[in-house]
Amino acid sequence: MSKVKFNGQTFPSSEVAGPSVLSDTRASGWQQSDVGSALSAAYLSAGSSAQVGPGVFEATIREQVTGPSAAELLQVRQSEYQQGAATTKTAPGAPIDVSTQAATLTGWKVDNWSQSGPITVHLLAQRPSKDFFEYAALVEWDTAVGDYKLVAPAGGKFASAAVPDTSPYTP
Questions:
Q1: Looking at residue 115, what is its pLDDT?
Q2: Collapsing DSSP states into helix, strand and coil, what is residue 160?
Q3: Is the dihedral of CA 125, 129, 130, 133 positive or negative?
Q4: Helical axes 34-47 vs 54-64, angle rounded to 10°
Q5: Measured between alpha carbons, how far is 119 from 140 in angstroms, rounded to an integer?
Q6: With the C-alpha atoms ordered 12, 17, 23, 28, is the resulting torsion angle positive or negative?
Q7: CA nearest to 47, candidates 65, 66, 60
């Protein structure tokens, strides 16, 4: 595993598991494996966050998110972006600078990897205050495009929870 910058954050990258395609705004090309599913969940959830700006999150949601709540996720992200941009005095369309408050991805665990059906990936992150939290992201393999897509969470928001023990997570 190596480390790469993506949308202002550092992420793990694997020559085998992906991403095989990485630009300033998109990550794709995942191996259909437990590691590929974990990495895709991390990159796709980051790419669909309001902080990256509408030029990134709108396209990511439109092209790499699936499920009945995809439109709702887009609405939530647009609202979060408007609110965050106003608070931070961000220029319209620009990424929101949250570098002093941003959490850092530190690990993951995959509950139910299989070649079919949604896969639950628990992403572990650490806040600047040093406490850990996780959120679960679902990804599923899209056979039409040969890549993973993020499954939009119900209500358009990922639920998170504090994590007292980080030992079960792959760093």
A1: 87
A2: strand
A3: negative
A4: 140
A5: 6
A6: negative
A7: 60
pLDDT tens digits, 118-154: 999 999 999 888 999 999 999 999 999 999 999 999 9
Find, among 50, 77, 48, 58, the residue nearest to 138 by Cα: 48
Q: How many CB atoms lie within 10 A of CB 132?
A: 18
Query: Token pair for residue 114?
Result: 């299989």
Between CA 18 and CA 20 the distance in angstroms is 5
CB 167 within 8 A of CB 106: no
Residue ranges of the alpha helices (H) in 6-163?
Answer: 34-47, 54-64, 70-88
118 burial via Cβ count (<10 Å: 0-12, 13-18, 19+): middle
16: exposed, middle or buried (Cβ count in 10 Å: 0-12, 13-18, 19+): exposed
Residue 83 to residues 62, 75, 90, Cα–Cα distance (Å): 21, 12, 10
Q: Is the pTM of this model over 0.90?
A: yes
Q: To which residue do tokens 């040093």 refer? A: 130
